[in-house]
Specification:
By secondary structure, the protein is mainly β. The chain has one domain: Histidine kinase-like ATPase, C-terminal domain (Heat Shock Protein 90, 2-Layer Sandwich), CATH 3.30.565. Helix content is 13%, strand content 35%. The chain has one helix at residues 49-59, and strands spanning 2-8, 11-17, 63-69, 73-81. A 4-stranded antiparallel β-sheet has the order 1-2-4-3. It is globular, with a radius of gyration of 14 Å. It starts with a strand and ends with a strand.
Length: 85
Protein backbone atom coordinates (compact mmCIF):
# COMPACT_ATOMS: atom_id res chain seq x y z
CA UNK A 1 0.00 0.00 0.00
CA UNK A 2 1.21 3.49 -0.84
CA UNK A 3 -0.15 6.68 0.76
CA UNK A 4 0.47 10.02 -0.94
CA UNK A 5 -0.39 13.62 -0.11
CA UNK A 6 0.08 16.47 -2.57
CA UNK A 7 -0.96 20.05 -3.00
CA UNK A 8 -2.99 20.87 -6.11
CA UNK A 9 -3.77 24.57 -6.28
CA UNK A 10 -6.04 25.40 -3.34
CA UNK A 11 -6.68 21.72 -2.58
CA UNK A 12 -4.89 18.90 -0.81
CA UNK A 13 -5.12 15.48 -2.44
CA UNK A 14 -4.72 12.27 -0.46
CA UNK A 15 -4.39 8.97 -2.29
CA UNK A 16 -4.23 5.36 -1.18
CA UNK A 17 -2.93 2.80 -3.66
CA UNK A 18 -3.14 -0.96 -3.27
CA UNK A 19 -1.86 -3.77 -5.42
CA UNK A 20 -4.83 -6.12 -5.05
CA UNK A 21 -6.85 -7.77 -7.79
CA UNK A 22 -8.50 -4.50 -8.85
CA UNK A 23 -12.16 -3.61 -9.35
CA UNK A 24 -14.09 -4.52 -12.47
CA UNK A 25 -15.03 -1.33 -14.40
CA UNK A 26 -18.69 -2.39 -14.47
CA UNK A 27 -18.88 -1.71 -10.71
CA UNK A 28 -17.23 1.73 -10.78
CA UNK A 29 -20.51 3.69 -10.87
CA UNK A 30 -21.98 1.73 -7.94
CA UNK A 31 -18.92 1.53 -5.69
CA UNK A 32 -19.98 4.49 -3.52
CA UNK A 33 -23.65 3.43 -3.27
CA UNK A 34 -25.05 2.46 0.12
CA UNK A 35 -25.11 -1.29 0.78
CA UNK A 36 -23.31 -2.13 -2.47
CA UNK A 37 -20.83 -4.98 -2.29
CA UNK A 38 -18.92 -6.35 -5.24
CA UNK A 39 -20.44 -9.74 -6.07
CA UNK A 40 -18.15 -12.63 -5.17
CA UNK A 41 -16.08 -10.51 -2.80
CA UNK A 42 -14.59 -12.46 0.11
CA UNK A 43 -14.83 -9.47 2.45
CA UNK A 44 -17.64 -9.22 4.94
CA UNK A 45 -19.27 -5.92 5.78
CA UNK A 46 -22.37 -3.83 5.31
CA UNK A 47 -21.43 -1.96 2.15
CA UNK A 48 -21.67 1.38 3.94
CA UNK A 49 -18.03 2.43 4.40
CA UNK A 50 -17.40 4.08 1.03
CA UNK A 51 -20.91 5.58 0.92
CA UNK A 52 -20.49 7.21 4.34
CA UNK A 53 -16.98 8.38 3.42
CA UNK A 54 -18.30 9.99 0.24
CA UNK A 55 -21.11 11.80 2.08
CA UNK A 56 -18.71 13.10 4.74
CA UNK A 57 -16.07 14.25 2.24
CA UNK A 58 -18.63 15.96 -0.01
CA UNK A 59 -20.19 17.68 3.02
CA UNK A 60 -16.75 19.28 3.57
CA UNK A 61 -16.70 20.51 -0.04
CA UNK A 62 -14.36 17.73 -1.16
CA UNK A 63 -14.38 14.93 -3.67
CA UNK A 64 -13.62 11.21 -3.60
CA UNK A 65 -12.85 9.08 -6.64
CA UNK A 66 -11.03 5.95 -7.68
CA UNK A 67 -9.08 4.36 -10.48
CA UNK A 68 -8.67 0.63 -10.80
CA UNK A 69 -7.29 -1.92 -13.20
CA UNK A 70 -7.93 -5.65 -12.97
CA UNK A 71 -4.77 -7.48 -11.93
CA UNK A 72 -2.97 -4.24 -11.03
CA UNK A 73 -4.86 -2.72 -8.09
CA UNK A 74 -6.76 0.42 -7.16
CA UNK A 75 -6.11 4.01 -6.17
CA UNK A 76 -8.61 6.00 -4.12
CA UNK A 77 -8.32 9.80 -4.21
CA UNK A 78 -9.68 12.33 -1.73
CA UNK A 79 -9.45 16.06 -2.44
CA UNK A 80 -10.23 18.64 0.21
CA UNK A 81 -10.01 22.43 0.16
CA UNK A 82 -7.09 23.93 2.05
CA UNK A 83 -7.94 25.68 5.28
CA UNK A 84 -8.36 29.44 5.02
CA UNK A 85 -6.24 31.58 7.31
Amino acid sequence: MILRVKEIGNKIQFSVQDFGKGIDPKYKDRLFDRYFQIPGSNKSGTGLGLAISKEFIEAQGGEISMQSEIGVGSIFFIQLNKALR
